[in-house]
Amino acid sequence: MKYFLILLLPLLAACSRSASTEFWGHRYSFAKNISYGVEKEQVLDIFCQGEWIGEPYYWKSDTMKHPTLVYIHGGGWLGGSKESVIPFVIPYLEKGFNVVLLDYRTGENTAPQAVDDCMLALKWVSMHANDFNINLHQIYISGESAGGHLALITGLLNTIPGSHQAYSGDSITIRSIINWFGITDIAAIDSYFAGKGEIRNYASVWVGHADRMDSISKIFSPIHRLGANSPPVISIHGQKDSVVPHEQAMLLHQLLNEKGVRNKVISLPDGKHLGFSARDFEQIYKEIFTFLENYDPKISQATKH
User: Distance between CA 290 and CA 237 in Å, rounded?
Assistant: First the structure.
């Protein structure tokens, strides 16, 4: 296990707000900044389950294949970092998932590199699953804002053979996509911000040249890549979101219904862009795990310790 940097994570246990008093942070080790490509931004972290056994090896991975969450940070495709989203994955760690966090290329006029990187990272996961006891048939993808977009498009493209050079849909099964207020129609975001000065038009900045907007949006907007074989999708979106309009989620789920794809929307009347109450968050995570377990009952057995 040459990738492991052995770090105990008591902070995760301390931050947990579970009703249970069971301590669980000791069940994980943390492998940081593993390269999944040749670019400096193409790195990922993995939380993996096992036990601490003392000297001389200290850490021993378990032998069970675990459901694994791949989480992609947001930032308008222009910034952000995998370290900033650790609080969002704590509930999955507590439930017994492995977790993969991604960094990817961001910045002006870089579209669609972020999509390419996330596809490549997922392919890397498929090739190294045995090293981390990842169950390739229990992969879940999530992210917030631009990360929600990347989770959606990465999950969808991996159900369309030949859709991307890093397609790995033949070796992995994406059980569900958990979309936190992600962009579903890139061109519509560009139009929404046209003429508005209070918030930067991040879609236009990411795509760069205006004459590329239609083609980038057609290929990499989730609403254009849906099909009958698309993974189930659960979305969380605030109705007062001024950064990614609530209509983005509504259109996506209307089309999912038309395609016959299992889906659910958690629509919060007072929710803003990453602006939810503590009670909201508690309810959201309950509904997420109910959704996941209803579609994949094996989660309960796979995550027991």
Answer: 18
For domain 10-302, say whether CATH 3.30.70.1060 is its number. no
Cβ-proximal residues to 192 (8 Å cutoff; 6+ apart), any chain: 245
One pLDDT digit (tens) per residue for the chain, 305 residues: 433 333 333 333 333 334 445 788 889 999 999 999 999 999 999 999 988 889 998 888 888 999 999 999 999 999 999 999 999 999 999 999 999 999 999 999 999 999 999 999 999 999 999 999 999 999 999 999 999 999 999 999 999 999 999 999 999 999 999 999 999 999 999 999 987 766 789 999 999 999 999 999 999 999 999 999 999 999 999 999 999 999 999 999 999 999 999 999 999 999 999 999 999 999 999 999 999 999 888 786 666 55
250, 238 in Cβ contact below 8 A? no
Alpha-carbon dihedral sign for residues 259, 264, 267, 272? negative
Q: 0.70 exceeded by the pTM?
A: yes
Domain boundaries, the chain: 10-302
Mind giving me the DSSP string for 249-291? HHHHHHHHHHHT--EEEEEETT-BTTB--HHHHHHHHHHHHHH
Q: Strand pairing partners for 233?
A: 177, 263
